[in-house]
Every structure is written in C-alpha cells, then in structure tokens.
Write a structure and sequence with these properties.
Elements (H helix, E strand, L loop, with lengths): L5 H19 L3 H20 L4 H27 L26 H11 L3 H13 L6 H31 L3 E4 L2 H8 L5 E6 L16 H11 E11 L3 E2 L2 E2 L2 H12 L2 E10 L14 E8 L10 E4 L7 E6 L5 E6 L5 E3 L3 E4 L21 H11 L5 E4 L6 H8 L3 E6 L2 H12 L6
C-alpha cells in the first residue's frame, strides 16, 4: 500500500468491502444502503481533495449499486398482479412501496434506465471514463442510456416507415439484410417472380456480406406465391483442382424446402470471364428455374427460325414407340420456341449501355433478366431480387410494366440501382 495516504488506504479497504457486499446483496434496500454509503464516501473524497482515482472507486460502487437496484425494480414490475417479490422489502400490508426504502419515482426511473444499458456497453463506459481520467457519474451513464433509447426509437420509426411504404407502394429498393427484410416485411405468398444471382463461391468480393444460403432459400419459398417462379443464377468456383458443385447442392436444397426444379437452363456467355488452365474454357452459368407448384405464367419466347422457313413439304418425327410420324409443313415465316440454353453478350456496352452498371463487380445482361421476366410473369406482377446489386432485374421489371422490389445489404449498390431506374425514359 506504499504511496497511498491513510485516508486513501481506508478508502481502498472500504471499496473492496462495498464491492463484496454488493455482489451478495439480494434485495433493493440492501443495494440502496450500499449505494448511499458509496455516495457519502465519494462526496467526502472529493471534499478532502483525495485523488480522482479514489473518487471514481466510490463512484463505481455507486453506479453498480444503482444498476443492480434498477434490475431488481424491473423484475418487480414484471411480477404481475402486485404480488410481493422476495427481492424487495414489504410494507405492513404486504405490498412493496418505494417509500419503504427511501427512494422516489425519479430515482427508480433513473436506475432502471442505467439497468437497461447492455452490460458490455456499461463496462466499457466505466473502463473508458477511468482510463481517460474523467469523473465517473450517474449522469454520464444516463446519457449513454438516452443515446441507446434514441437509437432504438429511430430504428423503430424507420421500420414503421418501411412497413407503411411497402403497404402503400410495392415497388422500391431498400438497403437491408435480405433475410431480416423478408422475415420482418414480407408476408407469405406475395412474390410472383424472383430473379437473382447470389454472391456464390467467393468469385467476387462484395462489401459487408455474409451469405446464409439455407435461410435465404427458406424465406424465398415462404414469400413466393403458389405458381410463382424463382430463377436462381449460379456457377461454381474451382477449389483444389475441383469444381465445388455448390450450384447443384443449392438446387437440391431448394427442392428440399418445397420448390420444384422446373427447368435447368444455361446462361452461355459470348466470352469467357475466367480462363482456365488444363480444362476447357468456362463460358456458362446455371439458371435454375424453380417453381412453387406448376408455374401460373409461361410466355415462351419464340425467336428461332424454323429450318423450313419459307418452304413447304413434309417432315417426320420419331414417336415414343420408335415409329415415324409424318407432318405437313405449311408455308410461312414461322419462328419456333428457343431452347433452354440462352446466349448473351456481357459486359459494358454489350450486356447494357448503362455506364452505372460497371460500378458493380458482377452484373448480368439486361436482356437475360428481361427474357426471364417476359417468360415467367405477366404485366402487373411483382418481381423480386433479394440481392439486387446494381438493379438489373428491377430496371427490366420496371421497363416491362411489372412492379419491382429489390434488397441489397450495400447502400452504395442500392444507390446505383435507384439511379439506373430514375434515368429510364419510362415503360416501354
């Protein structure tokens, strides 16, 4: 104890004794008694010009006691029906009153506010104040509690505004974690068509994103209408000389949660993005078309010339039993339905003429999104992208008279998407 005055040594002993007493106190009146003694010695230490460290030791016991008293008072409020609580002194009538232990409603309110501070923040405030050689006070902790409460109210108001906005206008772009957004703001069976390309296999670096695939898949099934469709565009990375197979596992899990794998389609790129060594060049991604029961909308794109275009005659096709079926070819310039392999140019100036899109690391061609929107939805339907990035799906939904809803965890990408849609001339 060398270097301390006699008063300070006495203070240290009292600090340790008060701290030990506080740890075993089980009722409000016991805690209040410890708090009052700590406050009295803090006042004496300040008047006697003892060190700030000694004053803060007393103040620490005081605020810890106030926090514990607040916790006990909160527990009492939760004890419904006015029943006496074992942690509280009782009046002659058997019911607890604040006056019984010499505190008023204002003190009770302040102590409960201090008790509402998360423990980690409470401890950080004490440590930071002492290390900064500042005076530790109840008022400082009340400011912390007030700031936390204000932040909570802002978040609650933001959530309320968001709910109001969604109910009034379904089209919109919101910065949020898509899982939380779907759980908090989207009712069962509200989406007609989802088109998205997730941040798969770390092929691109994205800002502030943790990809919980299974939770996303479960929520997507819940919010999809009966007859709605999900287009999941994904590929696989090469790790340790092997493709990961993540896309296949995802497709199988979608089937586990209730989707039907309606079609396995291919997005063929006009140029390779990742030249490979020792294997053929990778120029495609999977487009899994998943449906909640049979799709209610299917508008096939017919843009492939028939082999007999402009001619006439007969052709044959093989029946299931192996026999041949002869069909008459009519004259005309008829087009037939395309296959499930779709080829697109990608990149700036090819996948889109929109300069803003290059600000996102992995956009897909506008025509790809548009073709799926035309195929699997009707005008007025709601098109959703839970990881909307630069907003390609949303832009093409808007341009084809569909409502749209986009979510992205990165505000920068949401701003890009909003600007792209704002720059449009209007619906086609």
């Amino acid at each position: 104890m060398e270097g301390y005055t006699e008063s300070e040594i006495t203070g240290l002993v009292r600090f340790d004794a008060a701290k030990a007493a506080l740890e075993i106190a089980t009722s409000v009146d016991e805690v209040v008694e410890i708090r009052n003694k700590a406050e009295a010695f803090r006042a004496y230490a300040k008047q006697a010009h003892l060190s700030l460290g000694m004053q803060n030791q007393c103040a620490e016991i005081k605020v810890r006691a106030e926090r514990r008293a607040g916790e006990l008072l909160i527990e009492t409020q939760l004890d419904k029906g006015g029943r006496p609580n074992k942690n509280l002194s009782q009046s002659a009538s058997g019911l607890f009153k604040l006056d019984d232990i010499g505190i008023d409603k204002d003190q009770s309110s302040r102590w409960q506010a201090i008790a509402s501070i998360p423990e980690e923040i409470f401890e950080e405030h004490i440590k930071g104040t002492v290390e900064a050689e500042k005076e530790l006070t109840s008022a400082g902790l009340l400011n912390v509690a007030r700031d936390i409460k204000c932040k909570q109210r802002r978040e609650e108001r933001k959530e309320a505004i968001l709910r109001e906005t969604l109910s009034a206008e379904e089209s919109g772009i919101y910065c949020s974690d898509c899982i939380k957004f779907m759980k908090d703001h989207m009712a069962d069976g509200t989406v007609d068509l989802t088109i998205t390309s997730p941040p798969y296999d770390h092929l691109r670096s994205y800002e502030i994103y943790t990809f919980d695939f299974e939770a996303i898949a479960q929520e997507l099934f819940r919010i999809t209408k009966d007859g709605g469709v999900l287009v999941w565009i994904a590929g696989d990375a090469v790790v340790n000389s092997s493709e990961t197979g993540s896309s296949f596992r995802q497709a199988l899990y979608f089937m586990e949660v209730g989707f039907s794998l309606w079609d396995t389609m291919i997005y063929q790129k006009a140029a390779t993005s990742y030249p490979s060594i020792g294997r053929y060049q990778q120029i495609f991604e999977y487009m899994f078309v998943l449906s909640k029961n049979r799709p209610k909308a299917f508008n096939p794109i017919c843009d492939v010339p028939k082999l007999w275009e402009g001619s006439w005659g007969h052709t044959t096709r093989r029946r299931q039993d192996g026999s041949l079926d002869t069909q008459t070819i009519k004259e005309g310039n008829e087009l037939k339905m395309r296959s499930n392999i779709w080829r697109y140019h990608n990149g700036k100036g090819m996948g889109t003429r929109d300069d803003l899109v290059v600000l996102h690391p992995a956009s897909f061609p506008e025509k790809l999104a548009e073709d799926h929107i035309l195929s699997w939805s009707n005008p007025g339907d709601l098109v959703f992208d839970p990881m909307c990035g630069s907003g390609t799906t949303l832009k093409m939904a808007s341009s084809n008279n569909r409502k749209f809803l986009g979510i992205d965890v990165c505000e920068e990408y949401c701003q890009i998407a909003r600007k792209r849609i704002a720059a449009m001339d209007g619906p086609k």
